Amino acid sequence: MLPIIALALLSPQEKIEGPRIEVLLQSGKSFVITMDAKNTPQTAKRIVELVKIKFYDGQRFHRVEDWVVQWGAPASRDKDLKDPEVGGGGSGRQLPFEAGKLSFLKGTVGIASTGRQVGGDSQLFIVKRDSEFLDGSYSACGMVTSGLPVVMQIKVGDRIKSMRVLGEPKQPKRRPRGS
Length: 179
Fold this sequence. Notes:
Order of helices and strands: HEEHEEHEEEHE
Helix content: 10-25%
Strand order of the largest sheet: 3-4-6-5-7-2-1-8
Oligomer: single chain
Largest sheet: 8 strands, antiparallel
Radius of gyration: 17 Å
């Protein structure tokens, strides 16, 4: 009976449902993020908006440490990654803080900010190992649901070729007026 109780205590993150975003690297490798639209609705909506306008396309991963990878600074496209503008830049629109219900376990996606319980902008990070010390302080807004081994191999300067929302219905082509 004891092993069953232990398994219950170590259950995985709650299942999340929301938009799925593919991140395609210049190398041709990719991973998929599922946004937690239920518990971080404003954050999920804003990230999807940024993906749709190709905000992240061409950016580089500017922070890679043994426990985290981070991207989302437009200046990373062409500036030296040590330039302070790279680490602090964003889309220019501050989001409210949404803690969410996910714990920062390996593969959790968060939104970077200037401090604890402060909403972020556009910079996202993925923890490469369990990092529960972030719980409640930073917005846990999604999970890597495919391609975690790719995330684990990312290096500083690796470039994002494109990001796209998966499973979106195609918009019908409009016929020109008068035809």
